[in-house]
């Protein structure tokens, strides 16, 4: 079973008909796809009103939206390898579990992209604030293998 089938089995739906916006949500450069930052619908700060569990769910939601943008750009998740994630977490100054929040994104990618295709470099960084007060923002880089 390929990445596309695993994503569909997990409930992701791809419409590929979204209108182009002010920015490209995913841009192709040769065999590399670089995504814009995608944000969660969850708002608030980790370490205050948002729990690690809520942050984990927010990161999972964000990577689902990243995959939809990538799918719209290339037409399939098959033949892709996850290269890098940059996970930004809206955090209080004493919150130190950003990595546990961004695991929500990484865990889903590991389920969809089996083996080496799902393993990726990653940064999980705390920020004093993110646009519109969202809890999580993530950027991703994918390689088109074929």
Your description of this structure?
The chain is α+β, with helices and mostly antiparallel strands. The protein has one domain (3-14, 32-144): 2-Layer Sandwich (60s Ribosomal Protein L30, Chain: A), CATH 3.30.1330. Helices cover 31% and strands 25% of the residues. It is built from three helices and six strands; from the N terminus they run αβββαβαββ. The chain has helices at 3-9, 52-74, 98-112; strands at 26-29, 32-35, 38-39, 80-90, 121-127, 136-144. Strands 1, 2, 3, 4, 5 and 6 form a six-stranded mixed sheet that branches. Helix 2 (52-74) packs across helix 3. The chain is globular. The two termini are 17 Å apart. 36% of the residues are buried. The mean pLDDT is 94.
- Domain module count: 1
Distance between the termini: 17 Å
Structural class: alpha+beta
Strand share of the residues? 25-35%
Q: Rounded to an integer, what's the Rg over CA atoms?
A: 15 Å
């Amino acid at each position: 079973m390929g990445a596309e089938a695993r994503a569909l089995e997990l409930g992701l739906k791809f419409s590929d008909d979204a209108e182009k916006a002010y920015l490209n949500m995913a841009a192709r450069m040769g065999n590399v796809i670089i995504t814009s930052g995608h944000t969660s619908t969850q708002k608030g700060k980790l370490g205050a009103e948002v729990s690690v569990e809520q942050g984990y769910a927010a990161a999972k939601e964000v990577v689902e939206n990243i995959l939809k943008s990538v799918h719209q750009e290339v037409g399939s998740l098959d033949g892709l390898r996850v290269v890098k994630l940059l996970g930004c977490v809206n955090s209080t100054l004493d919150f130190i579990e950003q990595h546990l929040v961004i695991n929500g994104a990484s865990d889903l990618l590991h389920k969809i992209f089996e083996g080496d295709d799902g393993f990726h470099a990653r940064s999980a960084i705390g920020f004093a604030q993110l646009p519109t007060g969202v809890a999580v923002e993530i950027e991703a880089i994918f390689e088109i293998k074929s």
